Amino acid sequence: MSQWACVSAANLSCQASIINTQKLRNTPRCDAFSFKGSEFMAQSCRFLSPQAIYGRPRNGACPLKVVCVDYPRPDLDNTANFLEAAYFSSTFRASPRPAKPLKVVIAGAGLAGLATAKYLADAGHKPILLEARDVLGGKVAAWKDKDGDWYETGLHIFFGAYPNIQNLFGELGIDDRLQWKEHSMIFAMPSKPGEFSRFDFPEVLPAPLNGIWAILKNNEMLTWPEKIKFAIGLLPAILGGQAYVEAQDGLSVKDWMRKQGIPDRVTTEVFIAMSKALNFINPDELSMQCILIALNRFLQEKHGSKMAFLDGSPPERLCAPIVDHIQSLGGEVRINSRIQRIELNKDGTVKSFVLNNGSMIEADAYVFATPVDILKLLLPDNWKEIPYFKKLEKLVGVPVINVHIWFDRKLKNTYDHLLFSRSPLLSVYADMSVTCKEYYNPNQSMLELVFAPAEEWISCSDSEIIDATLKELAKLFPDEIAADQSKAKILKYHVVKTPRSVYKTVPGCEPCRPLQRSPLEGFYLAGDYTKQKYLASMEGAVLSGKLCAQAIVQDYELLVARGQTRVAEASVR
Which region, left, alpha or beta, applies to residue 129 given φ > 0 means left and ψ of -120 to 50 means alpha? Predict the structure, then answer.
């Protein structure tokens, strides 16, 4: 699942800063932003019920004891995909040490940029990672408010079917920061307010039998005739493998289901929720390729659909260790460093990145690891007609809204898990006061919810979004939440709007996704929109970074020769 939001190319200051991860971990922050252009992110914070006593430990108070019960890390290390990803990682560490390390400047410190820099550093090169804002993570960025509570760009889930992410955690020595949940998928029942339907994957069965068993045992969402028709409809995908999956890019989920003779009710009951969770859009828009890739991973890998939450905020618990690793190997990470333009040589290749403060950074290679919408804004005019870049016009970020609501009491009708709301306005949600150790609170719940599809709501006021969210929550918590707050009271909320998040995976997008190596010598791309098999996801972002780093390492001789030519030409002048 995606569960992403946006990377911003904007920053509050033109002054670049070398990042200090210790300061990052200790500095609270509460801001409200509004930036121009497709790269902006709007964030807001509202504090209600000022007389209410907020049950979080304050400075000097004893920390709360965490009593969340998590499940052991699944046995992922011997799966084929994990081993393939592990070998890929090892190639960087095992590559010959370069006589002259490449200086590589990377724009964007989301997961794609961080991964690119990490693996280049592993290969002995010197990355300089530039982040426009004063926070790391891009689509996994998060901030602290004045109470010390975190609010995030999205609700992030780490699946067992994310082999490159799982390897990254292991390489950094932070496997213990993932809180694994029971192997289930839990859906709300709109026809029965307050009730849920579960798909439980038995531990004793291998894949795909555990998934088949989970589907067969659930009789609340699909009838037996619907299950049989769905299974028959899926047979071509199961037998045809990856080639068949990729060939379905031209069909929407809804069209594919009808083509396979699968009842519309299957789409309504299951795939509206899945589509919104995967790409924040409905099944009449989403490419079926996206659904089939997810189903393939979930059905072919025993622990593929098993979920974990990070035990705290992504900037501190995931991004900071990557930065530490990069810096320990001689790389740099700079925040407040926004790219203003790409300066070109006479032959059309990159001469330098020009920052907002007027400074120029020259390097042996250049990487753009921002979202595709930001790249398109900064493309030099004489690049725009090159087919490699022109195809990007069809790739457009999808809007999404992430909502955080702190209540005055502990809600009972929830689970220590991700929940599919099956609401027309909401995608997935979780009570983060239960699922995440750092956010744990025994007295009050904090619901984090993905509001999607968001296209019609992105320009609405925060209060309108909260009012609409409460109406939906009243159906999920009929005994505990009312739209008029006559039951549970809101203590405060944060709304994070992302007008351009992950690329919208509509039919016909696959041929438009670029390879990481551009046709221009020395210029590369990274990001979940680039060509890799995990589409728009955290796993896709990390894999794209590895592929980008691999391309640069493979081009070492060419890049060194190019640099020598540039120096020789400069000396002649």
Answer: beta
Measured between alpha carbons, how far is 334 from 133 in angstroms, rounded to an integer?
10
User: Residue 140 has which token pair?
Assistant: 């996994």
Residue 302, token pair as written in the block: 């025993």
Phi-psi bin for 485: left (phi > 0), alpha (psi -120 to 50), beta?
A: left
3-class SS letters over 501-515: CCECCCCCCHHHCCC
Give tens-digit pLDDT for 480-493: 999 999 999 999 99
Q: Which pTM does this prediction carry?
A: 0.89
Interacting residues of 264 by C-beta distance below 8 A, sequence separation 6+: 254, 257, 258
| Three-state secondary-structure class, residue 356 | coil
Q: pLDDT tens digits for 330-382? A: 999 999 999 999 999 999 999 999 999 999 999 999 999 999 999 999 999 99
Element (H, E) at 47: strand 42-47
Determine, yes or no, domain membership for 43. no
Which stretch of DSSP H or E encloses residue 204?
Answer: none
Which H or E element spans position 186? Answer: strand 184-188
- Could you tell me which residues are beta bridge partners of residue 198? 186
The answer to whether position 327 is within a domain reads: no
Asked whether residue 280 is domain-assigned, the answer is yes
| One domain for residues 482 and 418 | yes
Q: What does each C-alpha distance from 276 to 174, 290, 317, 335 come to in angstroms?
A: 30, 11, 27, 32
Residue with tokens 């899926």: 234
R_g (Cα) of the chain, nearest Å: 23
